[in-house]
UniProtKB/TrEMBL annotation:
<keyword id="KW-0949">S-adenosyl-L-methionine</keyword>
<dbReference type="InterPro" id="IPR058240">
    <property type="entry name" value="rSAM_sf"/>
</dbReference>
<dbReference type="GO" id="GO:0046872">
    <property type="term" value="F:metal ion binding"/>
</dbReference>
<feature type="domain" description="Arsenosugar biosynthesis radical SAM protein ArsS-like C-terminal">
    <location>
        <begin position="192"/>
        <end position="323"/>
    </location>
</feature>
<dbReference type="GO" id="GO:0051536">
    <property type="term" value="F:iron-sulfur cluster binding"/>
</dbReference>
<dbReference type="InterPro" id="IPR007197">
    <property type="entry name" value="rSAM"/>
</dbReference>
<dbReference type="InterPro" id="IPR013785">
    <property type="entry name" value="Aldolase_TIM"/>
</dbReference>
<protein>
    <submittedName>
        <fullName>Cyclic pyranopterin monophosphate synthase</fullName>
    </submittedName>
</protein>
<dbReference type="GO" id="GO:0003824">
    <property type="term" value="F:catalytic activity"/>
</dbReference>
<keyword id="KW-0408">Iron</keyword>
<dbReference type="InterPro" id="IPR024521">
    <property type="entry name" value="ArsS-like_C"/>
</dbReference>
<keyword id="KW-0479">Metal-binding</keyword>
<dbReference type="Pfam" id="PF04055">
    <property type="entry name" value="Radical_SAM"/>
</dbReference>
<dbReference type="InterPro" id="IPR026351">
    <property type="entry name" value="rSAM_ArsS-like"/>
</dbReference>
<dbReference type="Pfam" id="PF12345">
    <property type="entry name" value="DUF3641"/>
</dbReference>
<keyword id="KW-0411">Iron-sulfur</keyword>
<feature type="domain" description="Radical SAM core">
    <location>
        <begin position="37"/>
        <end position="180"/>
    </location>
</feature>
């Protein structure tokens, strides 16, 4: 079932765009830092909170030509981080080529992994590849208990994730300076994440005590009311109350560091977006909106396309793919 209720038409929810109209935050910064590329809408999992609606039935993957375009635009505009995401990015047959090519160019690369894919046939060599190229890992682990994680991501996910985190530790991840292992927490329902600092301490304690696992940082991310999570909210009659919760928690201090201000998001087909959430809604950037058309052209500051889903980035301590923003 697709989400039918438009977030901009829910009674009593003020327009996010109007709320920040005319402020400096409506524009990107002149120099962008992060290019986030979504190279596969295919995923081995089908998590309940997924805002991009990824699952094993999807077939959309980024071509090698589009990856080359991304790398060219990255270099021409001095981006500092290549953030590779999906779906499960590992399921793109050109994934390994991309990691190696980025490494040759000296690019700092992040891969967002669900961990479970790395236990499946054909993918088990990838942790060593990541270590060899000093790829930063951002791994989903919705909670440090089996019950909560499996409820959100599927049966068996917690055990597979723990095995893989142990493997990353054996390779030096979370222990050696250049091998960074960060985890991601998502709330298991229609509520805001707890404080990132206190949850980090809890995760560190529990994962060390119970499994001997160590990691660098924990990112708490607010669930965005779109995609599969939006459909769940609508089905369960919780969409309006969740939106009200986000609006009530609106924090103006979170506007400065909204991730769209310093990143460019590229879809599997080369279309450009301000962020992954706009990508999930199909809202392309203002002005140029294909990576191919940016080649040889400086990326300049642009007006960001906002909607009411943006309340998820500005509630409480703020939320981004790198955790809290305030
Ligand atoms: S949340 Fe991540 S792991 Fe889960 S279905 Fe979506 S893309 Fe896949
Ligand atoms: S969803 Fe968040 S990152 Fe995307 S445009 Fe809105 S505020 Fe920016």
């Amino acid at each position: 079932m697709k989400q039918s209720l438009c977030l901009e038409q829910i009674d009593g929810i003020p327009s996010f765009s109007k709320r920040i109209q005319g402020q400096d935050f409506c524009m990107t910064k002149p120099q962008l830092d992060i290019m986030q590329i979504n190279i596969s809408n295919r995923c081995n999992l089908a998590c309940k909170h997924c805002h991009v609606d990824a699952s094993p039935i999807h077939t959309e993957i980024m071509s090698r030509e589009t990856m080359k375009d991304c790398l060219q635009v990255f270099g021409e505009n001095n981006f500092s981080v290549l953030d590779i995401t999906g779906g499960s990015p590992e399921m793109n047959p050109n994934f390994q080529w991309l990691v190696e090519e980025a490494s040759k160019k000296g690019i700092h690369t992040i891969v967002r992994s669900n961990l479970v894919i790395l236990t499946e046939k054909g993918y088990t060599h990838l942790p060593e590849l990541y270590a060899q190229h000093k790829v930063e890992i951002v791994a989903s682990l919705p909670y440090y208990s089996e019950k909560d994680t499996d409820r959100q991501r599927g049966v068996g996910v917690f055990k597979a994730s723990i095995d893989m985190l142990k493997k990353f530790n054996q390779l030096g991840y979370g222990k050696i300076q250049d091998l960074v292992l960060n985890l991601v927490y998502n709330p298991g329902g229609a509520f805001l994440p707890p404080k990132q600092d206190s949850l980090t301490m809890e995760y560190k304690k529990k994962l060390m005590e119970q499994y001997g696992i160590t990691f660098n940082r924990l990112y708490t991310i607010t669930n965005n009311p779109i995609g599969r999570f939006g459909q769940f909210l609508e089905r369960s009659g919780n969409l309006k109350s969740y939106m009200n919760r986000l609006v009530s928690a609106f924090n103006p201090a979170a506007l400065e560091n909204m991730m769209c201000r310093s990143q460019l998001s590229v879809g599997w087909d080369g279309l450009l977006y301000d962020c992954d959430f706009n990508q999930a809604r199909g809202w392309t950037t203002e002005g140029v909106h294909r990576i191919q058309d940016l080649k040889g052209t400086p990326v300049t500051a642009r007006k960001i396309v906002f909607g009411n889903h943006c309340y998820a980035c500005t509630a409480g301590s703020g939320s981004s793919c790198g955790g809290v923003t305030t």
